[in-house]
Design a protein that fits this description.
By secondary structure, this protein is α+β, with helices and mostly antiparallel strands. The protein has a six-stranded mixed β-sheet. The longest helix has 24 residues. The two termini are about 20 Å apart.
Length: about 210
């Protein structure tokens, strides 16, 4: 079954990703390949021109620089990547009814804020403990599990970020039920990111 997506004004775009974050840390493969290829081409050209030492050096520098960029992107997790990963973890824990995992990812004064959807009023909650309790209660209905289809993240400061997450709900037999978009606000304190606000943006059919 084809998933019907929301209109653009229901899921507003987030600010663009800084080029350095995207191409060096989050998607380093194209840049790493380009750097290595330039070094290879320059080195081969110098070797053919008779400059063995300079050509060999260009080859080594190009390959080393390309490998360095790739390793940096692989080993370093940016804040955007962190909150995207945590958003998926929070969504999965909520669907599983894992109360400790949900509570660990929430700020003490976290809240679920009403959004624009007609169903949003069902999710107005305040406080980490109440949210965790409600998630556990809902999971007892045995609605099944979820799949994270997409995440989009942006930083509004060094310790503040937002992540939009799109999830698909499945029943216990793995059949498709529905899909929805959520906005999760994140705050970093003492090196740990926690969700401060969760807003339902769009539900299919609502």
């Amino acid at each position: 079954m084809q998933l019907q997506g929301p209109s653009a004004n229901q899921v507003p775009p987030l600010p663009p990703v800084p080029p350095v974050d995207r191409w060096v840390f989050e998607q380093p493969q194209p840049l790493a390949i380009a750097i290595a290829a330039v070094g290879l081409l320059v080195g081969i050209a110098m070797l053919r021109g008779g400059s063995r030492k300079a050509g060999s050096l260009a080859l080594l520098v190009g390959l080393a620089a390309g490998a360095g960029v790739f390793l940096a992107g692989t080993l370093i997790e940016t804040p955007r990547e962190t909150i995207s990963r945590l958003a998926a973890t929070l969504a999965t824990a909520a669907a599983d009814g894992d109360r400790p995992a949900v509570a660990a990812l929430l700020e003490p004064d976290a809240r679920v804020a009403p959004g624009q959807s007609r169903l949003a009023g069902l999710f107005a909650l305040e406080g980490r403990e109440r949210i965790a309790d409600e998630v556990t209660r809902l999971a007892r209905f045995g609605l099944g599990r979820i799949q994270v289809l997409e995440t989009r993240a942006a930083l509004d400061g060094t310790r503040v970020g937002r992540c939009q997450i799109r999830v698909r709900a499945l029943n216990n037999e793995g059949g498709w039920i529905n899909h929805s978009w959520w906005l999760i606000d994140w705050v970093e304190r003492d090196g740990t990111w926690r969700a401060s606000k969760i807003t339902p943006l769009w539900f299919q059919g609502s």
